[in-house]
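new request in #modeling-help
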Amino acid sequence: MGRYLLRRLLQLIPVFIGTTFLIYWLVWSVPGDPFAGKCGERPCPDSYVNMMTEKFKLDEPLWVQYGNYMQNLFQGDFGQTWSGRPIGDIIATAYPNTLKLAVVALAIEAVIGLAAGVLTGLRRNGFLDNLVLVSTLFMIALPVFVIGFVLQWVLGVQWHIIKPTVSSEMRISELIVPGFVLGSASMAYIARVARTSIAENRRADYVRTAIAKGLPMRRVVGVHLLRNSLIPVVTLLGTDLGALMGGAIVTEGIFGINGIGRQVFRAIVTKESATVVSIVVVLVLVYLLMNLLVDLLYAALDPRIRYE
Amino acid sequence: MSEQSAAGTSGRPAGRLLEVDDLRVEFRTRDGVAKVINGVTYHVDAGETLAVLGESGSGKSVTAQTIMGILDTPPGFVTGGQVRFHGKDMLRMSNEERRRIRGEGIAMIFQDALSALNPVFTVGFQIAEQFRVRRGMGRSEAKKRAIEMLDQVKIPNAKGRFNNYPHQFSGGMRQRAMIAMSLALDPEVLIADEPTTALDVTVQAQIMDLLAELQRERQMGLILITHDLGVVADVADRIAVMYAGRIVEEANVYDLYAKPAHPYTLGLLNSIPRLDEKGQELRTIKGLPPNLMNIPPGCPFNPRCPMAQPVCREKVPPLLQIGAGRASACHFAEELVNRD
Amino acid sequence: MSDPTAASIVSTPPAERPTEVGAPTNAGLPENARKEKPRGLLGDAWRDLRRKPLFWISAAFIVLFLLMAAFPWLFTNGDAVNGSLSRSRVEPSANGWFGYDVQGRDVYARVIYGARASIVVAVVSVFGTLLIGGTMGIIAGYRGGWVDALLSRIADVFFGLPFVLGAIVILTTFNGSGTSNSKWEIMALVSLSLMVLGWPVVMRLMRSSVLATKEADYIVAARALGAGTGRIILKHLLPNCLAPLLVYGTIMVGSFIGAEATLSFLGVGLKTPVVSWGIMISEAQNYIRVSPFLLFFPAAFLVTAVLSFVMLGEAVREALDPKLR
């Protein structure tokens, strides 16, 4: 187990470096003058440009800049924006919002997806089963911004059930609809995976054994069947957190949430490349660590899996 | 081990432990309806071992599943007959009544213990679970009893193995654990569905000995489902031979081996490889079992039967008594028994 | 009879499953019933598909959309690009079925012409993704060893990029506000970024598929008979790994149509003068309260197109997967 963990951590390093360098290279090769418009109507004076180039070491080769950036990153320093604001501050304000939204989405998709999956897996081909199959198909197929707009328009504009946008306090009650929108596709996948898993395991020999032991149906399903069927669902949920945070940009835009999506957008428009890189790097880190966590969780859930 | 247990075809004395009476089951699939069980009748009494013998697809496992109430529905549907436990028809009981019989009245062990045991729970948990759920015992009490059960089936270091998962057991040990689990609530009838098929030959004998021993000790009725004549001979009192969802012959072991009263049984016996016939070709039964969606008219065995006559293609031979404690479903049963 | 040893004499040596046909099963289903009608997997799948109304509906829609993309003039003689401001945001009527947008352009004509960009981008991206991912997956799965390790890590790197954010970064780099790309260049760029972000999934799919079939007896036999690597891959491996790839590809066309729309909606994908559903939705979002029909029609077309492809893929997958029956 310990050796497995070590090996996985070692494997993460090249992937982390590769992904972050890719991002770094892409972001810093965004064409256009980063200082355009920084000094009012006129082009910036040479002295200013020279000063900034010196300060941010812009004349160094890209890989040296990347090395410096990584070095600072490991000391907890995300660097500064052009105007000198620490990027760490931006991350500290924007990330919790996105995380909160993603966690709400995850909770909603886990509860609804799992419930729908279990119910339909147990009773296939009924009315509920077909309803869930069709609605999950829609949720998978509909782009998030369409679902977002429709719900915002119907619930917020027409029926006034919710406020069309989320306030800066980010109350959980306000996040339910945005969370639902963000998690809709994953919710559909969870429901389908849970359904297939339950339906496959329902005919398994050990379920038969549990019934033959004279256990009540509640226990057969709730303990024996569910425990086995949950393994793929938990995997899906675990890897989803990173994807939800990365995909939150559209939902944040629609519901006016000040998360990393908005910050990335603003940073791209204002050519704050360092900010873009930092936000994405943290996201990549979250994603990689969650994947590792899921792998370890797997061992806890399925005793047959042993790691060498 | 009763000396002269009568074949349960007609006589129906009161106090029978478990009786299957004219049971009919069909599988409704996309491709059509398969008549899997077509009027099966057998019984087992306390302290007695009935072996149900037949090829795969003959319906022996499906009968057992119907008794246990674990038939997959759909596709399987019971279309007729009764399964009586202490004289009461289980097929007409409420789900709750039936559930209480499982484990306590009738228990079952399965062919492949690896898939029959839940892979994500420890063996100990799965045995102790019954004491906790069915007997309302506390955790430590249930654990103690479960370890006792593991001891009884001769699993070495039972205490240490309590917390092992099924995949950490060897095949034989796993089947022992399965037996311990099925016997936990001290059932009156135990159904063993091919309990040794998945095991090595040497382990097979050990498991069969264990089963026979436990059955004697507890005076259980044992229904042993198998396709293996060798297994049957050692432990069974009576044998019911199944073919295409019917009982084709029923007899005590000695009679059946000495004078089979059905050509199918004869074929089975002849196909056992024998040391004194080394070098000769194995005598197998020609052909395949019938398609259960389209069972031929007349005797279902007639297309493969070396003795088939025109009557066999027209009339289904009923299962008739042909002497004390034995029955056969062959038009020529008497001739078979009396020939030399 | 009470003496078990008497019987044991008769039975020695133990019979070796004399009558067993095939592996012993507990299923109780008559095996010979299934053996009666030998059908190939594809024949089975096709028989299954033919009965599904969903398959026919989605296939019909796909044909319709493909016709729209190829010959938009069959469906409308309106002008998708030029409008007159006098008709700005005129509601749907007998003259303009779907109404007119802010710049007075015929929404019906735009929705029809929008099919082309959306579908072309999606189909091209899917082909590229399948080609890159499939090739990498075959190489990784077939060669194994350090090649596999290297390719898998590269796939991990790209897989680690969040899809939307990654596409935004790529597209702003090459398709930012300062650039002046032509219509075709923009479409190529959008396709390229979808491919770059999409290929790792296909690679993993193909790799595991190849790993599963690589050791199959018939391939080992072909190798033993001296068949070359190229021949084994083309003649033996590929046909067997193709089914899951095609299913995934069909579903991917649907999700890429949605992805293209999302990117256009965010303002980093296709841009005017290109006509696409995503652009229309993006333009309509500011008028959602006053003229919801501007959002409704392109969204309806988009959703129908995405659904059709996803549904077709699902239907084929279910038909191919015996476990789901």
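bot summary: The longest strand of chain B covers residues 32-44.
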